[in-house]
Amino acid sequence: MKPYSNMSLTAAPFVYTRLPVFKINIAVLSLLGIQILILAISADFYALLNLISAVLGVIFVENLLRYLALSKLSFSLEMILSGLLIGFFMPTSIGFIFVFILSAFSVFIVKTVFGGTGHNWINPVAFAVCMAYISRPEAFPAIISNFSFLSEKGSFFAVMEANGLLKLKTDFAVTSALNSLLLHSVGVTLPEGYISLFVNSTSSIPAFRYNIITLISSIILFSIKAADYILPAVFLVTYAFLVWALGMVPVSNIYFTGDILSAVLTGGILFAAFFVMTEPASSPKTKYGKAMSGFFTGLFAFFICAQGSSPAGIFFAIILSNIISPLIEKLEIKIQAKNRRRYE
Fold first, then answer.
1. Where on the phi/psi map is residue 318: left (φ > 0), alpha (ψ -120 to 50), or beta?
2. SS3 33
3. Which stretches of 91-210 are DSSP H helices?
4. Is residue 87 part of a domain?
5. Whole-prediction pTM
6. d(CA 35, CA 55)
7. What's one GO BP annotation on this UniProt entry (predicted)?
8. Residue 41's pLDDT band (boundaries 50, 70, 90)?
9. How distant, in Å, are the alpha carbons of 6, 202, 292 from that of 283?
10. Number of structural domains, the chain?
């Protein structure tokens, strides 16, 4: 028999189906780093300053709470990640001092009032963005879901163009190539401008800009099992279906004509779905709970964001979904109990 000092402990007979938390954080930070690098290359120093300020604000308040609880001070990847996500949704003109104070205050409230560290049932990033929008709405892009204007222009994308949407120089060439090579054969025509929304929407909020990077990052996260796909997938399906089915009803009284692409490529919908909604503390733990949370978030997002381009609507939808989380938890327990009874 081996001496005790030479023995090693293993995880057997348990099998881990996901990466450890440390590796998950590394993966998410690495993918966010791509967008940070793009901001640096494009010399968007105000956006970078907001990111740094948000991270410092989160680190400050987390260690303040530890100090007040007589615990050791620490520095973790979770703090950096929370700060970066808050910073990504801050308009570049909002001011880095405001971002520092906002991120510190928001995390303090969430961690002290809404459940405590690791048990908070309110998403801290969503709470911070909602507080920023309530405090300084003028710093955020304007809401352009005006029904009368929408009726005049005929489509939501036309409304965005009238409100100053900038197209990339390559938009026409790429759109023409896609239409002639792929889409015309199936009877579909992609209008100009959607490529710009997909690649770089030139929004004042960094999280709204690079939808193609966000989408590729989500595929990587799901493929390496660093994030669960159920909640964001159900959310996107629910929101997209409601926009398509009911989006144009208030304008033209016609069903199933809503613009899904405009909806999901504006307002930070993709970024919020893949990076914010999956926050472990405030999201449900079972697949049933995640599906229900995704459904309700999509429902709330439709009524708040309508056909898209809402500067902060998705975060109010997330907060509303967090508020009904006790109901979702009760439904989870009932479903699990019913499933267990089948094997008893």
1. alpha
2. helix
3. 96-113, 124-135, 147-153, 156-162, 171-178, 194-199
4. yes
5. 0.89
6. 16
7. transmembrane transport
8. very high
9. 41, 31, 11
10. 1
Which residue range is the domain that position 40 belongs to? 21-139
**Structure-token pair, residue 133:** 């929008």
Could you say which DSSP state residue 141 is in? P
C-alpha R_g of the chain: 22
**Residue 168 resides in a domain:** no
Residues written for the chain: 344
- What local confidence, expressed as pLDDT, does residue 209 receive? 95
What long-range pairs does 58-63 form, CB within 8 A, spacing at least 24?
58/82, 58/83, 58/86, 58/103, 58/104, 58/107, 59/83, 60/100, 60/104, 61/103, 61/104, 61/105, 61/107, 61/108, 61/111, 62/107, 62/111, 62/117
Q: Quick one: the chain helix, strand, coil %, rounded to 5?
A: 65, 0, 35
Written as one string, the DSSP assignment of 111-123 is HHHSS-TTT-SS-
Contact 245, 258 (CB under 8 A): yes
Q: Copy the structure tokens of residue 198.
A: 């997909």
- Looking at the domain assignment, is residue 27 inside a domain? yes
Residue 169 lies in a domain: no
At 138-158, the pLDDT tens digits run 999 987 655 556 666 656 666
In sign, the C-alpha dihedral spanning 302, 198, 82, 40 is negative
Token digits for 234? 């159900």
C-alpha span between 52 and 61 (Å, rounded): 14
